[in-house]
Amino acid sequence: MLSLSSRLVEKAVEQFASLPGIGRKTALRFVLHLIRRDKDSVSAFIDAIRHLKESIRECDVCHNIADRERCDICLDPRRDAEVICIVENIQDVISIESTGQYRGVYHVLGGVISPVDGVGPGDIRVESLLRRLDARLAREVIFALGATIEGETTAYYIYKKLPHRDQLVITTLARGISIGNDLEYVDELTLGRSIVNRVRFEP
Description:
Layout: H1 7-17, H2 24-36, H3 39-55, E1 57-58, E2 65-66, H4 72-75, E3 80-87, H5 90-97, E4 104-108, H6 127-134, E5 140-143, H7 149-161, E6 169-172, H8 188-196, E7 199-200
Helix pairs in contact: 1-2
């Protein structure tokens, strides 16, 4: 346990250490770095975090993070809006975008079905996806969920619910991804190849 001589430093360290993946030693380095920076740059840092919390919102269409009603991906006319990639969370959008191999749009479920954790179909954004598809706004649906039991269960549940299923191309990531892996931990090259070489979804 780090013993600090200042309660102000201690409180700041506690806040940084509350972030995922940040231990107390790393948190202390952050705090000491901020102490050394000039007042204006620290104020800009604080204002950016405050503005983020106050202004960030969810895209009305795909549930990605956005600065306005629709995210930049949904608004981009260069994207193929008829190809919808279904992902578990925002980190997965970031992971897929980092590959530079995908030019469609997304639907962020906000989780996967996991009865053990008390997460059912009503706890994730399935209904808004079905409304998009019921309006015949897609020609292809890509299941880009983790290669886990929960991911497979969620894909199967959505597949059975898909409207106009016989008129859709339904694919999933090629199995360059190891069983049990979440997308955010897969390297960009493997993930990019898995998107490009996606295969027909077999329920």
